[in-house]
Amino acid sequence: MRWSPLPRVVIALLVVLSGSGVAAVTAADPAIQLSSVVVTPDDPNTGEQVTIDATIANLQNSDTTVDVTDLYVRKPGTLQEFARVENVGSVAPGGSLSVPISTTFDTPGQKRLELNVGVRDEDGSYHSYTYPIYIDVTEPTVRADLAASTPTNDTGVTRISLTNYGNTNLSNVEIAAVANGTVVDRNFLQELPPEASGTTAFDTDAVDADSVTFTATYAAAGGNHTTTLAVDVDDETPVPGRVRLTAIEVSRTGTGVMIQGDAANLGGTDADSVLVRVGDAPGVSPTPPSGEYFVGAVEASEFATFELTARTENASSVPVEITYLVDNERVTTTQRVDLSAAGAPSARAVGVENEPAPGGMNDPRGSGGPPLALVGGAVVILGVIVGLVIYRRRS
User: Fold this and answer.
1) Cα(147)–Cα(225) distance, integer angstroms
2) What one-character DSSP code corresponds to residue 60?
3) CA–CA dist 41, 134 (Å, integer)
4) Whole-number Å distance between alpha carbons of 262 and 63
């Protein structure tokens, strides 16, 4: 039997029990409503605790206080129960009661369940109601990786990050640093949920070894796991900041070109006072408003946008001069931007007026018929003449 796709969480089942549920309902039944059912987590793994939080409301127009005698989760059509809570409490008219009930599942797959509620009114009569719940249970996946980095201003420290790429929590996380077969340091991390990372720092400046092996141990999916990473501590000096132009777009303007893109820092240290400007070359000159552009500071492995405008005359490329400070030293470099890919469509995209193309609709020499403006004007004049003729005939 195949089921159509259903939501994993049954939210806001705002159906008065007098109109829903498996049990037959009479006019004498209390006005009970299950105002919400929330399943946490909504995509559990096998063996993971699942909590079903049910809110039972006694509507304002009810004429009796009810006692919630039991709440249980059962497989439809069977007596197999996954969880049960008894003697839950009383609910007066206009009140509500939130009841959590927890269970686990040993096998994966879509679980079709029933949440059953039993109540007793002031007359001692018992009433029961049934609500469907659908939970998709998956097998746990355990996968985690270590990564190392060095702070810009502290070359004697190694930062180790552990990232959880699986679908289950990592707990009891411990990372040990081993050099020459001896544990030199040990740090701990908090529990890591899926798609989360944790970082800790190790002092490796005094380690008398060429490399340090970092080993992370953690508990997940009912077992213990390890992940290792070897780091060459003699090669921890970061690469100096290096600014290059990337993601460049060139657009034609009426008098030249507009160059836009990113000034990216490809190094491992920050670059300060980054300035880009149109360089000197035959047929190329900077023009307002952006003959030069002050980018400012660009952190390591980050980028910032820039925009330049230049006049070009029969030039195939534009030299862009890049100057910046890195480690208190000024660096100047030049990068040439190819103009062969620049075209009219890009110029229109930035709102620049285009020159008419020969033979096109904007070209007065084109053979595509009279200009649209003249045709429109003729239509307007003709309409005015017809109107005057009709007016004179009627008068």
Assistant:
1) 17
2) T
3) 13
4) 70
- For the domain with range 144-235, which CATH number is right: 3.40.1110.10, 1.10.260.40, 2.40.50.200, 2.60.40.10? 2.60.40.10
Which neighbouring-strand residues pair with 243?
265
* 225's tokens: 């796991």
Per DSSP bridges, beta strands 66-74 and 81-91 are antiparallel
Query: Domain extents for the chain?
Result: 17-137, 144-235, 243-349
The 3-class SS string of 67-135 reads: EEEEEEEECCCCCCEEEEEEEEEEECCCCEEEEEEEECCCCCEEEEEEEEEEEECCCCCEEEEEEEEEE
Tell me the pLDDT tens digit for each residue of 10-24. 333 333 333 333 333
Do 144-235 and 17-137 fall under one CATH topology? yes
The Cα–Cα gap between 215 and 183 comes to: 10
pLDDT (tens digit, 9 = 90+) per residue, 75-104? 998 999 999 999 999 999 999 999 999 999
Distance CA 138, CA 191 (A): 21
The residue type found at 128 is: S
- Interval 237-271: pLDDT, tens: 567 889 999 999 999 888 889 999 999 998 888 99
Residue 16's closest CA among 38, 36, 32, 37?
32
For residue 74, the one-letter residue type is R
How do beta strands 317-326 and 329-338 pair?
A: antiparallel
> What's the pTM value of the predicted model, to 2 decimals?
0.45
Give the integer Cα–Cα distance in Å for 36 and 52.
10
A 10 A CB-CB count for 123 gives 8
Q: Count how many residues are written for the chain.
A: 395
CATH T-level topology, domain 243-349: Immunoglobulin-like (2.60.40)
Report the CATH number of the 17-137 domain: 2.60.40.150
